[in-house]
Structures are given as C-alpha cells and as structure tokens.
Amino acid sequence: MVPELPPLPALTRAEGQLIDAYLEVVDLLGKINPSRGSHTYGALRAAQALVGRAEALREALALMHLRGESEVHATTLACALRVLDGERRAARVTVPDTRAN
User: Fold this and answer.
1) How far is residue 48 from each of residues 19, 33, 36, 43, 85, measured CA to CA in Å?
2) Can you state the percent helix, strand and coil of the chain, rounding each to 5?
3) Distance between CA atoms of 75 and 25, rounded to whole angstroms?
4) CB atoms inside a 10 Å sphere around CB 78
5) Cα–Cα distances in Å, from 22 out to 37, 41, 62?
6) Contact yes or no for 92/33 (Cβ under 8 A)
7) Are 6 and 83 in contact (CB under 8 A)?
8) Global pTM value
9) 70 in Cβ contact with 27 (< 8 Å)
10) Tens digits of per-residue pLDDT, 6-45?
C-alpha cells in the first residue's frame, strides 16, 4: 500500500501555476544534467522544451505580480513542493556525490 500524502496547502491559481512550471523546469534540467545523462538526444529534447517551460514560469510570476501577489510565501510553497516530490526531483539537477562510493 502506498502511504497517503499530506494534502496540498491552499494556493492561489497563480501559485499553483508557479509550482507546476517550476517543477517542470526542474524535471527538464534533471534530464539535461550531463553528470546524470547518457544520451545527447534526450538532453537536446529537454533543452528544447525548457524554453517553453521557462516562459510558463515567467508567465506565472507575471500573473502573480499583476494580481497584487507581491510576496512569495516560501513556507507554503515549500510545503507544496515537498508534497509534489520536489526534493527528489530537484536532486536530479545536482552533481552526484562520488565520494560516497
């Protein structure tokens, strides 16, 4: 049985779009990471897709700004990232620690 995840915190629509776009960018950066990949074609495709996802991230932030959401509620957004497996996903962006081997 899969353990039940905690509920997502209440987010505005723009905050939700920000989190979604951010995680999509992180996922693509993980695919591009040369220390973790093995094929140039997959990295190339991820790099091409990154442009569109970065635009979506920019649009989410612009929407928040236009709506008067001038502050980022880091604690709430960090909770949402944890619920959506953001820590594992972001770890793919880093260089693996070879000293542990």
Assistant:
1) 20, 14, 18, 9, 24
2) 65, 0, 35
3) 20
4) 13
5) 21, 23, 14
6) yes
7) yes
8) 0.87
9) no
10) 889 999 999 999 999 999 999 999 999 999 888 899 999 9
